[in-house]
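Reminder to self: C-alpha cells first, then the designed residues, so the page reads top to bottom the way the pipeline ran.
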C-alpha cells in the first residue's frame, strides 16, 4: 500500500504547449496537496520520468505522455474528455475526469440565466428596441414552459434541479433510464422524439462522442415544436451547424444560445456572429474553479496513495 509521502515521485502537470495557466494550476494543486510535489513536465528528470505513475493534465501533448513508460493514469482538470481520449488512442492509460459540484453549480446557474433570457423574450425585446418598437409580448408563466435537457449527468442533473426550483416543467434525456423526482425522464434514441415534441427550450449538456456528434441535426430540429429555442453549453460538434442555421432561417427555431463551437474561437466570418437569432458566447458557461478542482484532484490522489484505488475512470468505449 502506498501513502502520500514525499518519497513518492513528483506528479507532473502536463498541458499543451503555450497554455498560459500552467503555473497557476501547479500552485493551486501544490497548495491542495502539501504531501506531494507537483511540477511542470519540463522539470522532470530522466529518472523521475521512468518512475511516474500518474500525471495531472490539461490538454497534454501526447508525445510527453508517451515519454513516461510507467504511466498508469491521468487526472484531467477538465470535465470533457473527447480530446484526451483521442490523444491517448489505444494505449491502456486510464483517464479520470473532473467531477466538481462547484462546476455543476456554475453550469446550473448559466443554464438558468440563459433559459430566463429566452423565457422572458429578451432577444425579441432587444430587436424591438433597435426598431423603436413599443410592443408588449404575451407572458407565459414558467409552469407552462418545458425545458428539456440532453444529458442528465453531473451537469445536466444539477441544471434540472435549478430549473425545477425556478418553476419550469423539466424533461431530461440520457442513455440509461433514470428515475428523478419531478423530472420527466427519457432514455435512448427511440424516446428522444417524444421529449422533443413537448420542448420549449432545449439545453444540450451531452459529452461529445461518436454517438452525439451531429446529433442535433435536421431531423431532430424538425421534431421540436415551431418556435422552440436551443442552448448549447456542451460541445460545438454536437450540432450540425447547417441544419441549425436552416431551422433558424425558416423560423422553425426562434433563437439559439451557443457557448461552444466546432472551431474556437469562432471564425470571424462565421454566419453565427451576425445572425439575428443567435447569441454567441465565448465558451464561458462554466469556467473551472482552480481551487475547488484542485481539492477534488487532491482527494482522489490521496485515496489512490492510501488504498491503491483509482477514482471512477472514463469508459473509453462509450467515450465519456
Ligand atoms: P456526465 O456526467 O458524463 O453526463 C453525461 C450525460 O450524457 C449522461 O446523463 C449520459 O447518459 C448522457 N449521454 C451520453 N451519451 C449519450 C447518448 N448517446 N444518448 C443519450 N444520453 C447520453 O458529463 P457532465 O459532467 O454532465 O458533462 C457533460 C459535458 O459538458 C462534458 O462532456 C463537457 O463536454 C461539457 N462541459 C462544457 C463546459 C462549458 O464551459 N461549456 C464545462 C464543463 C463541461 P447516462 O447518464 O445514461 O450515462
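Designed residues (320 positions):
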Amino acid at each position: 500500500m502506498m501513502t502520500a509521502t514525499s518519497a513518492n515521485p513528483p506528479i507532473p502537470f502536463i498541458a499543451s504547449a503555450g497554455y498560459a495557466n500552467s503555473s497557476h494550476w501547479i500552485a493551486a494543486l501544490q497548495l491542495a496537496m502539501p504531501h506531494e510535489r507537483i511540477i511542470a513536465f519540463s522539470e522532470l528528470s530522466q529518472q523521475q520520468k521512468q518512475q511516474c505513475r500518474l500525471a495531472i493534465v490539461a490538454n497534454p501533448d501526447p508525445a510527453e505522455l508517451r515519454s513516461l513508460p510507467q504511466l498508469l493514469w491521468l487526472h484531467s482538470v477538465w470535465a470533457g474528455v473527447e480530446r484526451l481520449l483521442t490523444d491517448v488512442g489505444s494505449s491502456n492509460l486510464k483517464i479520470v475526469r473532473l467531477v466538481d459540484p462547484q462546476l455543476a453549480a456554475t453550469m446550473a446557474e448559466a443554464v438558468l440565466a440563459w433559459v430566463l433570457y429566452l423565457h422572458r423574450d429578451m432577444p425579441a425585446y432587444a430587436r424591438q428596441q433597435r426598431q423603436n418598437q413599443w410592443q408588449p409580448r404575451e407572458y407565459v408563466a414558467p409552469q407552462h414552459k418545458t425545458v428539456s435537457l440532453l444529458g442528465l449527468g453531473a451537469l445536466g442533473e444539477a441544471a434540472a434541479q435549478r430549473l425545477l426550483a425556478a418553476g419550469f416543467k423539466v424533461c431530461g434525456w440520457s442513455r440509461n433510464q433514470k428515475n428523478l423526482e419531478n423530472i420527466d425522464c427519457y432514455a435512448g434514441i427511440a424516446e428522444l422524439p417524444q421529449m422533443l415534441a413537448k420542448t420549449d427550450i432545449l439545453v444540450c449538456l451531452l459529452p461529445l462522442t461518436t454517438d452525439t456528434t451531429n446529433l442535433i441535426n435536421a431531423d431532430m430540429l424538425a421534431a421540436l415544436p415551431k418556435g422552440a429555442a436551443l442552448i448549447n453549453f456542451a460541445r460545438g460538434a454536437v450540432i450540425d451547424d447547417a441544419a441549425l442555421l436552416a431551422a433558424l432561417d425558416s423560423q422553425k427555431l426562434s433563437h439559439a444560445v451557443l457557448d461552444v463551437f466546432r472551431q474556437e474561437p469562432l471564425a470571424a466570418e462565421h454566419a453565427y456572429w451576425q445572425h439575428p437569432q443567435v447569441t454567441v458566447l465565448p465558451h464561458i458557461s462554466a469556467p473551472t474553479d482552480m481551487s475547488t478542482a484542485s481539492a477534488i484532484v487532491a482527494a482522489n490522489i490521496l485515496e489512490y496513495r492510501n488504498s491503491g484505488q483509482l477514482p471512477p475512470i472514463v469508459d473509453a468505449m462509450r467515450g465519456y
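Residues 79-80, 151-156, 173-176, 205-209, 211-212, 233-235, 259-260, 283, 285-286, 320 surround NAP (CB under 6 Å).
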